[in-house]
Design brief:
By secondary structure, the protein is of the alpha/beta class. The protein contains seven helices and seven strands. It has one domain: P-loop containing nucleotide triphosphate hydrolases (Rossmann fold), CATH 3.40.50. Strands 3-4-2-5-6-1-7 form a seven-stranded parallel beta sheet, sandwiched between helices. α4 links the parallel β3 and β4. The termini are far apart.
Length: about 210
């Protein structure tokens, strides 16, 4: 009689550190006026992926949706100004694959209860670090979290990284060309290595 081999199931933990360790997190540095163009290129490099973009306000979500429309990118803005029925319809359409890009806020993201997010993009970093943790949970292990970081976001990023006990991988965005040669300046911290000293190029890295 063949020997029976027992397989032990590894318990999955959902604390900040465990989630951070098993989820890919990227940081793209950009000046504020170049954020829309960088987001456009990130989306183009993520063809076919189910993407949720988080903004700091309802107005920002609508403005971003309008901008992407001018670039022939269909992205639905859904936020607190929309009725509950509209929010439910948007969530169903996203989970069914009828639309693959949603723009929303942290508050509405929690209400939507989306199932198949492959990339979550922090167009704006949250003021509360725990909101970032909540964002990462939606792509826990299965997808990736991308943050667009402008100079004024540096302190928020440091706080988030401290909470998650990790440092986001820094990468350039393939085919993105900034409108100016100015380089975002990091917050000077004697205890912390300058974030913009060296950046990992993704020009030769194949895109998913």
């Amino acid at each position: 009689m063949p020997e029976q081999t027992s397989k032990k199931k590894t318990k999955k933990y959902y604390d900040h550190i465990s989630v951070a360790k098993r989820t890919k997190q990227l940081a793209h540095y950009v000046l504020p006026h170049d954020k829309p163009a960088m987001l456009e290129q990130v989306i183009k490099n993520s063809s076919g992926k189910n993407i949720v973009i988080i903004t700091k306000s309802k107005r920002s979500a609508d403005e971003l949706s309008s901008y992407l429309k001018t670039k022939d990118i269909k992205a639905l803005s859904i936020h607190g100004n929309h009725r509950t029925e509209q929010q439910v319809e948007a969530a169903k359409a996203f989970d069914a694959g009828e639309i693959n890009i949603l723009i929303t806020t942290d508050m509405i993201l929690k209400a939507l209860d989306l199932k198949n997010i492959e990339k979550i993009i922090s167009y704006d970093l949250p003021v509360e670090p725990n909101d970032y943790y909540a964002r990462v949970l939606y792509v826990d292990e299965r997808g990736e979290s991308i943050s667009l970081v402008s100079p004024e976001d540096e302190k928020l990023l440091v706080t988030i990284e401290f909470l998650m006990k990790t440092q986001m991988q820094e990468e350039d965005v393939k085919d993105f060309v900034p409108s100016t040669q100015d380089v975002p300046k990091p917050v000077k911290d004697k205890k912390k290595k300058p974030r913009h000293a060296k950046k990992k190029s993704t020009q030769n890295i194949s895109q998913e």
